[in-house]
Amino acid sequence: MTKINFNHLAIEEQIEYFNLKLNGGKNINQICKSIQISYSTIRDRFKRNSYFYNKLYNQYENINTTIHIPEISEKTIDNLITKIKFQNLSLECERRDSKLTSRSFRLHTCVLSEFIDFCNNSNFTQQEILTQFIAEGLTKYQNNI
User: Fold this and answer.
1) How far is 88 from 82, CA to CA, in rounded Å?
2) Residue 78 and residue 10: Cα distance in Å, rounded?
3) E strand or H helix at 99, and its extent?
4) Residues 28 and 57 occupy one common structural domain
5) Which of 6, 40, 76, 115 is deepest in the core (most CB within 10 A)?
């Protein structure tokens, strides 16, 4: 196609031509070069007519009619919610100079699972977090015993 033929097409036909070539594996600069028109001319012309290049779909689309909602798995949503929850929490672990002692506890599986998830999303070690949780619990509930 020549530049003159391309310029005589309606804007919708120009968009259709570009999208067809993009689907064929060419990029925007290759298409512009093949019809001997500058990229800035195409960009400005399409923008003036409410079209934009969607990199995700490799297509020119109308701004006023395009709404793409990507499919998001429930696992991804749950992971995002978990990360947001943990970002909103601030944990300050005090450094302690005392001697470390090894101890064994039995925990409910669901609590342990939540604790491990919490630790994986933290900058602190499980030891530091557990020490801080116990210390805060002692401070909070010591007077209630």
Assistant:
1) 10
2) 46
3) none
4) yes
5) 6
Rounded to an integer, what distance in angstroms lies between the CA atom of residue 92 and that of residue 128? Answer: 10
Range of the domain at 111: 74-144
Longest dimension (CA), the chain: 89
As a whole number of angstroms, the distance between CA 16 and CA 144 comes to 74
CA–CA separation, 145 and 142 (whole Å): 6
Q: pTM of this prediction?
A: 0.46
Co-location of 79 and 122 in the same domain:
yes
**Same-domain status, 79 and 57:** no
Which of 19, 40, 62 is the last residue before a domain boundary? 62
Element (H, E) at 113: helix 109-120
CA angle (78, 84, 86) in 5-degree steps: 105
